[in-house]
Amino acid sequence: MSIAYLKGMKKRMLFTFCLLLLLLFLFGLSISVGSAKISFLDVYKVLLSRISTLFKANVDETCEYIILNLRLPRVLGAVVVGSALAVAGAVCQAIMRNPLASPFTIGVSSAASFGASLAIILGYGVLSCYGGGYGYIVTNELLVIVNSFVFCMLCAFIVSVVAGVKGSNPTTIVLCGVAVGYFFSACASIMQYLGEAEALKSVVAWLLGDLGRVTWRYLPWMSLSLMVIPLFAVLGWRLNAFNMGDEVAASLGVNVKRLRATCIALICFMTATTISFVGVIGFVCLVSPHVARIIIGNDNRVLVFASALVGANLLLASDTIARTIVAPVILPVGAVTSCVGGPFFVYLLLKSRRVHWT
Q: Which residues have C-beta within 8 Å of that of residue 6, sequence separation ≥ 6?
């Protein structure tokens, strides 16, 4: 092994270790802050007491209830959603060879928004037995989740079919995604225009994203998205081949068309299983891969895991800010990620000299 390679591996391991330490710190900090102040130490006492009987938590029942039932699901949800969106963004940028590509580029967020609007405003969707008539405001939560997921996957199916017919090149996929996204966005806008005030308020709240919707009941379903991450790591060398172009990748034995279609389906699945529960949370899938890429390079075998850690940290930090900056009012986390991520992304672009795609 060359000295440069060993130095690169050391840097990657150090970066990953620092991200893990940061995540551990933010995890405890996010649980401790809120309207009810809980010490950082008490948080870990309670969590460790649940892991093993060797640890005893001398904490009153109220604090324990707040930690385990109110704040822990939200914090775990932030880690799951941030990791899934970041990995989906990293893989999307790899297969498209486009630094601005993300799952939202191919219309997933617009499709999810249409599904949610359909459920909230009209009370109608895939599980129509839960719906009502026009003006049905207090819609069934399950209807919103299922609608969002189904329309996300429908968007993926349409994009995949068009890409298969016209050839699975990145330009076709992006343009098709933009067209499908505009269509669903227009449909959602029409329904919002016709909807009543309270229903419209609910739609806007969903579109801004809210981790407060995460409960212990939904966490296992959301965590299904994390099962795809090891698969992308295994496919890392094939994803690296995309950096050299489709022709070179094909000459290396990569079935470009099939791999790209498979990745799109998995990306949309990861995105759908997260945003259908918490609403649209933007910028995490765009910023996180760039942060990881600037530090450790463009090797997707390690970039996938590094992006997951960056995304988890970013969303966890954003949610902590959203809950504390104007407490007791809780801001939408999607708005905070965009406010924080936008300027930070511009800063990275101005300072970085290491983002390469060829």
A: none
DSSP string, 96-158: HT-TT--GGGGTHHHHHHHHHHHHHHH--STTGGG--STT--S--HHHHHHHHHHHHHHHHHH
Domain count within the chain: 1
pLDDT tens across 237-272, in order?
899 888 888 888 888 888 888 888 888 889 999 999
CB atoms within 10 A of CB 35: 10
CA 43 to chain centre: 26
Neighbours of 71 (CB within 10 A): 19
Highest-confidence range of 36-40, 286-290, 352-356, by mean pLDDT?
A: 286-290
Q: What is the pTM of this model?
A: 0.89
User: Quick one: tokens of 36?
Assistant: 């009810």
Look at residue 326 and tell me if it is in a domain.
yes
**Which of 20-29, 132-141, 166-175 shows the highest mean pLDDT?**
20-29
Alpha-carbon dihedral of residues 102, 172, 276, 85, nearest 10 degrees?
-20
CA-to-CA distance for 203 and 147, rounded, in angstroms? 13
Angle at which helices 72-96 and 170-194 cross, to 10°: 140
What is the rounded distance in angstroms from the CA atom of residue 333 to the CA atom of residue 319?
A: 5
75 within a domain of the structure (yes/no):
yes
Q: What is the pLDDT of residue 126?
A: 55
Residues 74 and 89: their CA atoms lie apart, in Å, by: 22
Domain, as residue range, for 253: 37-351
The CATH number linked to 114 is 1.10.3470.10
Q: How far is residue 308's CA from residue 248's CA, in Å, rounded to a whole number?
A: 28
Closest CA to 74 of 322, 292, 326, 338: 322
Does 18 fall in a domain? no
Q: How far apart are CA 336 and CA 342, in angstroms?
A: 10
Q: Could you tell me the pLDDT band of residue 55, with boundaries at 50, 70 and 90?
A: low
The answer to whether the peptide bond before residue 328 is cis (omega within 30 degrees of 0) is yes
Distance CA 240, CA 261 (A): 16
Residue 282 forms part of a structural domain: yes
